[in-house]
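Go through this:
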Amino acid sequence: MAGTDNQMPQRGIVYSATGAEFVAEAIASARSSLRFNRVAHLIFCDAIPSERIDGVDFVRYETSGDPLLDRDRSICRLPFEQTIFLDTDTYVAANVDDLFDLLNRFDVAAAHAPGYTKCLDKGQSEAFNDFNLGVVALRRTPGVAELLANWIDIYERWKKSPPFRIYTAASDQASFRRALWESSISFFVLSPEYNYRSIFPGRLVGAAKIIHGRSRNYEKLTAHINAQTGPRIFDAFRPDREW
């Protein structure tokens, strides 16, 4: 990877992928981003592909056996001063410098989870919702490092001994919400344009810049979603159909 701890790239986009299928998916997402974003692109993965991918670096990890934990640990590594983490099932349709620019003011930014499944965790305001972790912008600071370390600790403790019933697929969101509530970092809530969850009904105002959800034809889906700007509402897009 270009750069070291003493000479770290200022900005970069990061993925985490366990298994060849998801490594390939991360590469496809990185390629969509590279059309618009001339920053470092890094994929943490359990097996580095033999093919060289222009503009993409790889760092291998030993999988924990839990792909969700692998992903969360990758987020915690903060390899850049300003990092955007993307899930592998994302498609970048525009330049995202404005998302990086938020990190000149805020420590972390993420969008609300549209499939909100709040568990029985008590102690936070009912207005403090889950956040989707498929698109997260993070500034490399001691406070953010502390937040992320606490998040992983909570996730692993709750996984071993759940203190209440937790929806397994969103357990990282529940533990992240708890860690964020306990943190004093500055946090910004992204609009759907920066994490458009296409598998849920949604609303957009500007052009969607990052589409999050699998599609058989991202170009067609993006053209449809961004055919016009201004307030608009869409049903869920099913990847097993025309999208």
